[in-house]
Amino acid sequence: MRQDSQMLLTPTEMALADSAAVKKGVPAVSLMAAAGFAVVEAIRRRWSKRTVLVLCGPGNNGGDGFVIARLLHTAGWPVCLAFHGDETSLSKEAMHHFKAWQGRVETFSDALFDGVELVVDAMFGAGLSRPLDARYRDMVNAMIARKLPICAVDVPSGVDGSTGKALGEVAPAALTVTFFRKKPGHLLFPGRALCGELVVADIGIPEQVLVDINVQTWENSPELWCQDYPWPRLEGHKFHRGHAVVYGGESTTGASRLTARSALRIGAGLVTVTAPSRVWPIYAASLISVMATSLDEGREQEAFAELLIDARHNAICIGPGAGLQGEEKVRTRHAVLSALATKRAVVLDADALSAFSDDPHTLFDAINGPCVMTPHEGEFVRVFPEINNSPEINNVHATDKVTRARLAAKLSGAVVLLKGADTVIASPDGQAIINSNAPAHLATGGSGDVLAGFIVGLLAQGMAPFDAAAAAVWLHGEVANVFGIGLIAEDLPECLPGVLSDFKQHYCSTEN
Ligand SMILES: NC(=O)C1=CN([C@@H]2O[C@H](COP(=O)(O)OP(=O)(O)OC[C@H]3O[C@@H](n4cnc5c(N)ncnc54)[C@H](O)[C@@H]3O)[C@@H](O)[C@H]2O)[C@@H](O)CC1
Ligand SMILES: [K+]
């Protein structure tokens, strides 16, 4: 996966990009000037001339602040610049711009905010390595108390650009201007909420610097996977579009029915729900284009395994409504192991994951083929308890969602889709995608069942697990955006066709 435009750079990777640009002949002073210029442009597009306070920290984030103060002053804005740090430790480029500032340099104090209408937060960016020292913290608290609009340079001070974690109190920005590429911390919560509107500015770093940086994290977008999207082909027929099997349980039958319908809507040629014979009539009476197969009473496990002997059943989803009570749990576990033994594409969601909370390694050992796991945070903790105690993540910078999902993928051998407002999809080879298009109203009962259905439907059509997971998550979010408030899970598959045709028109212009 190379899609340069969607790459997310960690602060360390951004520093590599920065120094590679300097090696290629772009002076560091110019990069800083361009960064400051971009922030001023963004400010002037959003706010009319007003009194501005620019708070500058000790590193290059503060250096950008010196440029911003100078350019706003030149444009006739009333500007107050305050700096806290050791002047003699400024980098060469920051010193250059510090000297170019002709006005007064104020020391940090609460009184600075009097009469101010906009604050530029240029205290800390990529170089933040620990919670803020007291003087900076006081300014952050003052910003929070005054409720003034804030434009943050690179990230709101206190947000870790790599993890999105807040190292202490953070004043939320109305606008954040970052440079060259977004950082993971702009998309991961709470960072995402603290950034406000996010602008990415070109500051003259040549794109070629990315070739030597082994970027492993992307923002989800159709550009990452639209080339491999399995559109129906004229010469194809339903058997070419795969046959998904969805394991149906006894008590919550709606969940697997939603999954099955979603798999069909996203284009699987055939979808079968299997159900114990006792409850089969419920499925049979309520499903039309989805088929319902009855598993004989007393030999459900064998019957499910026998069904899977037919290799045309090329993608299997277990979890939604599968059941965890008594015998049901035994059957759920057995179904998971039978499905994995086929080495065909398998989606494991909800109960299929929780059923292995006592012995997750039994599950991991069985994964030897294409597999996508879709835990939410609670299920993740149950299935990957060791990750939460791992020494590898035993520091504040690493306990983020991307790191945990990556470790889980490596440990299990499956693509791990860790759900939430900032869903992360990680592959065992270390690649990770952060999703950013999900609206708040997507958090509704059954929406996870639909997501599992979208994934298994794409797997049935031959899409690779990492791409299928990313595509399903993006389409899921997009459908919710298009439908809007009032959405219930049933609406998701019904609203998918319109979203699919818009997506096809936008991203897949050549006919298949
Ligand atoms: N990397 C790039 O390509 C570019 C970076 N630029 C700016 O440079 C910034 C990164 O600069 P730096 O690496 O100097 O990082 P910062 O400016 O974020 O801060 C680093 C400095 O703060 C100190 N520090 C860290 N945590 C502290 C704390 N809690 N309390 C007190 N001091 C603390 C460090 O010892 C170091 O002196 C970016 O965020 C961006 O704003 C721009 O100038 C444009 C180009
Ligand atoms: K900042």
UniProtKB/TrEMBL annotation:
**Binding-site residues for (6S)-NADPHX, renumbered to this chain:** 60-64, 125-131, 136, 154, 255, 321, 376, 449
Kindly state what the record says about how the cofactor is bound.
Answer: Binds 1 potassium ion per subunit.
Q: Which NCBIfam families does its entry note?
A: yjeF_cterm, yjeF_nterm
The protein's superkingdom reads: Bacteria
The record's keywords, sorted A to Z, are: ATP-binding, Isomerase, Lyase, Metal-binding, Multifunctional enzyme, NAD, NADP, Nucleotide-binding, Potassium
Instruction: Name the lineage.
Output: Bacteria, Pseudomonadati, Pseudomonadota, Gammaproteobacteria, Oceanospirillales
Cofactor(s) this protein requires: Mg(2+); K(+)
**Where in this chain does the record put each YjeF C-terminal domain?**
221-503
Give the YjeF N-terminal domain ranges: 14-211
Quaternary structure and interacting proteins, as annotated: Homotetramer.
Protein role:
Bifunctional enzyme that catalyzes the epimerization of the S- and R-forms of NAD(P)HX and the dehydration of the S-form of NAD(P)HX at the expense of ADP, which is converted to AMP. This allows the repair of both epimers of NAD(P)HX, a damaged form of NAD(P)H that is a result of enzymatic or heat-dependent hydration.
Name recorded for this polypeptide: Bifunctional NAD(P)H-hydrate repair enzyme
Enzyme Commission number(s): 4.2.1.136, 5.1.99.6
* Organism this protein belongs to: Marinomonas pontica
Per the record, what are the reactions this protein catalyses? (6S)-NADHX + ADP = AMP + phosphate + NADH + H(+); (6S)-NADPHX + ADP = AMP + phosphate + NADPH + H(+); (6R)-NADPHX = (6S)-NADPHX; (6R)-NADHX = (6S)-NADHX
- Coding gene? nnrD
Tell me the residue numbers annotated for binding AMP.
419-423, 448
Q: Which family does it belong to?
A: Belongs to the NnrD/CARKD family. In the C-terminal section; belongs to the NnrD/CARKD family.
Instruction: Identify the PROSITE patterns for this entry.
Output: YJEF_C_2 (PS01050), YJEF_C_3 (PS51383), YJEF_N (PS51385)
